[in-house]
Design goal:
This is Bleomycin resistance protein. Belongs to the bleomycin resistance protein family. Keywords: Antibiotic resistance. One of its GO terms (molecular function) is dioxygenase activity. The structure is a single chain. The chain contains two helices and seven strands. The chain has one domain: 2,3-Dihydroxybiphenyl 1,2-Dioxygenase, domain 1 (Roll). A four-stranded mixed beta sheet has the order 4-7-6-5, with no helix packed on it. Helices cover 13% and strands 46% of the residues. The protein is mainly beta and 119 residues long.
Length: 119
């Protein structure tokens, strides 16, 4: 929980500790964490988990999150950068970085930079 709450700024909306379950919120983002017991098991759990997937979470400002990660000496998987992606007739921009959670899942945090015409 330290990674998700203390470093990324999520709050526990509710949890069921006996089941190893927590429902976290941050702005409009919602994450359900389950320790891999019960009916949601899709296969054997091997580390690092989360290979081939990353979750994007939009935040108002990246700098406070980056400061928390730096103070905890939590390594970034990919340093912050400005990225522009084609989203139809325009490009949407975001400042983004990637970090791995304790189980190896990639989490992309991004701050909106607006839109522009494609170059």
């Amino acid at each position: 929980m330290r990674f998700w709450c203390d470093l990324l700024g999520f709050k526990i909306a509710y949890d069921r500790p006996a089941e190893g379950f927590a429902y976290l919120i941050r702005g409009g983002a919602q994450i359900m964490l389950c320790q891999g017991i019960g009916r949601w098991m899709t296969g054997a759990l091997e580390r690092p988990r989360g290979r081939g997937v990353n979750f994007q979470i939009m935040v108002d400002r990246l700098d406070p999150v980056l400061a928390e990660l730096a103070s905890a000496q939590w390594p970034l998987f990919e340093e912050p950068r400005d990225a522009w992606y084609r989203t139809g007739p325009v490009e949407g921009g975001q400042r983004e970085f990637l970090v791995q959670d304790p189980d190896g899942y990639l989490v992309r945090l991004a701050e909106n930079l607006g839109e522009r015409q494609p170059e």
